[in-house]
## 1
Amino acid sequence: MSANRLRGRTDSAIVLRTYKFGEADRIVVLLSEEGGKLRAVAKGVRKGKSRFGARLEPSSCIKAELYRGQGELYTIVGAEAISHYRNIREDLTRLLKVSRMLEIVDSITLDDVPHPGLYQILKGALETLEAGDSEMLLAGFLWRVLQNEGMAPHHEECSICGSESNLVNYDLRDGGLTCAQHPKGTAISPQALIVLQEILGGKLRQALNRADKTAANELEWLAEKVLQSHSERSLKSLKATHPAQSL
Ligand SMILES: [Zn+2]
């Protein structure tokens, strides 16, 4: 194959997951900095024949050298480790958080669609978690991802009247906060609201320093609900565009 028929690229990437492919290979699902989610074959890794197989574990951050021939898949021709996150790997609690984070990124992305900012958010969360656990880490990560993808609310005002005080509800359907005069949606506690406003208002560090398990659980629950309602809606719009598929 001539060189100009190979589409090569080098990109920083985080391994989201891997799965078996053929006799000896694995498919590595990557979130790359520039290209979004990419799928690449790592040849020979299951027979120990790969020079860089050990660098391709979920959550590993690599500088990946990829090329794409005629097919859909890239092939990994080189992988240089940027970070392994050793502390995370040795701690089950942190490992569970990371597996949820990787799963969410995988679920909200389509192959070959750039998601500017998402790689940095994931990398930042992994680095924070490597340095030490925080009660608010997962909530912070989830809401930053929602914000980056345009799924987070205006965090300072009622979506109906614009009031900045007495925000007591979160309207999952329309995706906004509402005040006591416009009770719509699910209740949000004052503690969780403060943390949410910090996360969405550029004060993530401050939020991460809080040890408030109750608020963390509430914000994680709410974020999961938002993700769920978005995926249900996009499924519906997909069916509306392709009516035959809904039969
Ligand atoms: Zn209002």
## 2
Amino acid sequence: MSQLRNGERIHLVDKKGRQYALTLKAGDQYQLSGHKISHDELIGKPDGSLVTLSGGKTMLALRPTFGEYVLKMPRGAQVLYPKDLALIPMWADVYPGARVFEAGTGSGALTMALLRAVGPRGLVVTYEAREDFARTAMTNIERYMGAAPNLMSFRKNAYEGIDLLDDGVPFDRLVLDLPEPWQVVPHAARVLRSGGVYLSFVPTVPQVQQTVEALERAAVFCMVETFETLLRTWSIQGRSVRPDHRMVAHSGFLTVARKVEAGFWTPAQLSRPTDEAEEIQEAGEDRAS
Ligand SMILES: C[S@@+](CC[C@H](N)C(=O)[O-])C[C@H]1O[C@@H](n2cnc3c(N)ncnc32)[C@H](O)[C@@H]1O
């Protein structure tokens, strides 16, 4: 349905592109720098409508995209940026129907990206150590996605262990955004199925080193890769076409590995550099021929 509904989170967007989030509640009034509009005027309007606040200020009323929602939603813990949220389901190869383990839940941004990727036939099991963060996350998730029957949320410390569900079926994918993923790696080695994918996100180089060392020690992980992404937006105004002056220059490093039968590679061979330049060149030659 494209009409804005009572109870839904929407964004009002001004001419400079700034977004202001509000949750629609019949009878309430929204105020922005002295300009007002009643929620009743917004409820029932088509998504993307132009609306007029008191004093003649015009704004767009929009249902936020997932990336927009995540940046404006209430947070306990720091959320992952949309550029990383977009990559993680791809690099962790989260597919419809997958059973995914996640820790920590934080504000729920990554949980939602995983839920979208596994779809209604999949399952996301998420651990969060802090009760208050978990509560914020569940509110954020419900407000954006409604009830999520394919989500199981636990107040648990992932460093102490990961429990399989009662059916004993291992996880297909395991995704971590917490400070010490190396403490989770031994548990990941136990609960991931063979062929499963491990992915963790950490902001600093020492954290990456400790994570990769733990993956090597576990002996059942291979094809370990670490990378970061830089997203540079551009300003395009007439003949002035250039990169924007500001960007998020650093968020964190993603480390990905496959769980396999031990013994194929020695520990020193587990983190093999992939020669992507060569692969890209080959792909280009294929397209050209
Ligand atoms: C950076 S936040 C995760 C943000 C989340 N990915 C998001 O996008 O909203 C890290 C979270 O991990 C939780 N955490 C830290 N150690 C943990 C542990 N041992 N077990 C479970 N959760 C943990 C923290 O409380 C925090 O909420």
